């Protein structure tokens, strides 16, 4: 019996995560070299599996050469074999594997594996959101928190929580470890498609920072910004971003 799209996404994300842990555990390399080997190995697995299981669908991966062929497809798989290569190479847990299916540009199906935590979060098995913290927590980059995020956090009285990959940050909101993930430093479609799909399925808000919907499978895969947060905080965060001085919102 063939897998549903959601089952396939979750299965592939989990398998790629196990492969990555095996590569890291082999001791063959470390640091940046480990990140490169992990990316290539997981990508080969994901690309082969998707082309075998869904040969009619389009495909976009961070680690494969992009072509215009996908633009004519209504259904396009968007994957990031290792989201957070640096964290993976440093043997941290805040990295992820993203497998998503965008349908007519909408992040519809997705799974985000957090292999270091032995978790896979998926669109077809949403968990109810727990209570929010009294003081909002905002996940930000470990090394370079965006000026906009810092300004919004100050206005909200939010606590900054440094964390690694985009997927790990988004899933921290899904898992109730944070309330807000605001990113304005630029990403690509593979960085956010699976996390956005999972977040939306769990009842969270996910949009661009001007409030417009996230749209995928475009010819230009660059995505300037992203907001994933608890729905009750969305309007306030969007308003704060709009009122930032030009130097901070550029």
Explain what the structure shows:
Strand 4 and strand 5 (119-122) form a beta hairpin. Helix 1 (5-25) runs antiparallel to helix 2 (31-53). The chain has a 5-stranded mixed β-sheet, with helices on both faces. The protein has 2 domains: 5-122, Fructose-1,6-Bisphosphatase, subunit A, domain 1 (Fructose-1,6-Bisphosphatase, Chain A, domain 1, 2-Layer Sandwich), CATH 3.30.540; 137-249, D-Maltodextrin-Binding Protein, domain 2. The protein has 250 residues and is of the alpha/beta class. The mean pLDDT is 94. It is globular. Helices cover 39% and strands 24% of the residues. It is built from 8 helices and 12 strands.
Poorly predicted sequence stretches spanning 5 or more consecutive residues? none
Q: What is the second-level CATH architecture of the largest domain?
A: 2-Layer Sandwich
Structural class: alpha/beta
- Across the major sheet, the strand order is 1-2-3-4-5
What is the overall number of helices? 8
Q: Biggest sheet, open or closed, and with what strands and sense?
A: 5 strands, mixed
Please state the average pLDDT score: 94
The general outline is globular
Q: Using only CA atoms, what is the Rg?
A: 17 Å
Order of helices and strands: HHEEHEEEEHEHEEHEEEHH
Q: For the record, give the distance between the C-alpha atoms at the N and C termini, rounded to a whole number.
A: 50 Å
**What CATH first level of the largest domain would be assigned?**
Alpha Beta
Helix content: 25-40%
Q: Work out the strand percent.
A: 15-25%
InterPro entries: CysQ/Inositol_MonoPase, Inositol_monophosphatase-like
GO molecular function, one term: 3'(2'),5'-bisphosphate nucleotidase activity
Organism: Stakelama sediminis
Binding site for Mg(2+): 62, 80, 83, 191
């Amino acid at each position: 019996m063939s897998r549903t799209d959601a089952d396939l996404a979750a299965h592939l994300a989990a398998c790629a995560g196990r492969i990555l842990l095996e590569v890291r555990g082999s001791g063959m390399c470390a640091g940046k070299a480990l990140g490169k080997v992990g990316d290539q190995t997981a990508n080969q697995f994901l690309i082969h599996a998707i082309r075998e299981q869904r040969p009619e669908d389009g495909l976009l991966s961070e680690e494969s050469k992009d072509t215009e062929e996908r633009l004519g497809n209504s259904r396009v798989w968007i994957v990031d074999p290792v989201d957070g290569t640096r964290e993976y190479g440093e043997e941290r847990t805040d990295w992820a594997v993203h497998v998503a299916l965008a349908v007519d540009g909408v992040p519809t199906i997705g799974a985000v594996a957090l292999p270091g935590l032995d978790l896979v979060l998926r669109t077809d098995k949403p968990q109810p959101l727990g209570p929010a913290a009294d003081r909002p927590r905002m996940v930000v980059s470990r090394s370079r928190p965006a000026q906009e995020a810092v300004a919004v956090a100050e206005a909200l009285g939010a606590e900054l929580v440094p964390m690694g990959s985009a997927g790990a940050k988004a899933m921290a909101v899904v898992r109730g470890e944070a309330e807000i993930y605001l990113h304005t430093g630029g990403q690509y479609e593979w960085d956010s498609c699976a996390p956005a799909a999972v977040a939306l399925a769990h009842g969270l808000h996910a949009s661009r920072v001007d409030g417009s919907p996230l749209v995928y499978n475009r010819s230009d895969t660059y995505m300037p910004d992203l907001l994933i947060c608890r729905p009750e905080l969305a309007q306030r965060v969007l308003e704060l971003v709009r009122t930032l001085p030009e130097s901070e919102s550029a």
